[in-house]
Amino acid sequence: MLAVFLAVVLIPFLSLLLAALQPAGTPLTGFAWPRGIHLENFGHAWSAAGFGTLLRSSAVIALSVVPAAVVCATLAGYALATMEVPGRGKLYAYLLLGLSIPVEVTVIPLYYDLRAVGLTNTVPGLALAEIGAFMPFGVFWMRAHFATMPRSLIEAARLDGASSWTTLWRVLMPSSRPAVTTLGVLYFVWSWNQFLLPLVLIQDPSRRTAPAGLGLFTGQYEVDVPLLAAATLIVIAPVVLVYLFFQRHFINGVLSGALKG
């Protein structure tokens, strides 16, 4: 069974890699072993699409979104799980509504709201939009995690005179690293792969993210499959590297949530 799932995951990547190593302009309809290794496709795709600037923009936005979103979700989840916040049930239900509303429905009103305050075509505007879009899941994730923490641990800290801030950072956070790391990896993947928000909110081509740039690149080279495959591998490489680096913490966080749930 594991071998079947492994094949399902790896076959698309293998198909992309084999296509990227074909000579540029080669028509492809399926798996085909490359006639030689043509690594120049990656260099051509990099220069033609301007991936240096696009990847830098994606990195800036992801590094702006992920820390802020993780901190906000952690604080909100901690408050809703452990504190007697007035109307916390209604507030939590209101936040969960965000999980049922697709981004496509909100992107046009969001554009006009950000334009009214001068935040369109800017990194802060796009970062705020992504943080807001990611917050419902993050609050849900962290609230579920803190709700499973032993109440006796929290009560003991309060009896010892610890403030809510000290209880969170000194008592609960050391055992919450897998959950926080998992949320951070998910946020990074979602921010990096975000396509619609950067496409609508960023009109300057030099400020667009890698997925948005890949979409424009696809329109220009739609018949050159090897070049498109090389460009796609360039865009997904950072996501794969981040996941491989944090995979142990990610799996621990997912399994911990599954076992506690």
Automatic annotation (TrEMBL):
Cell membrane is among the record's keywords: yes
PROSITE patterns, A to Z: ABC_TM1 (PS50928)
Gene Ontology biological process terms in this record: transmembrane transport
Location of this chain's protein in the cell: Cell membrane
SUPFAM superfamilies: MetI-like
Boundaries of every ABC transmembrane type-1 domain copy: 55-246
Name of the protein in question: Sugar permease
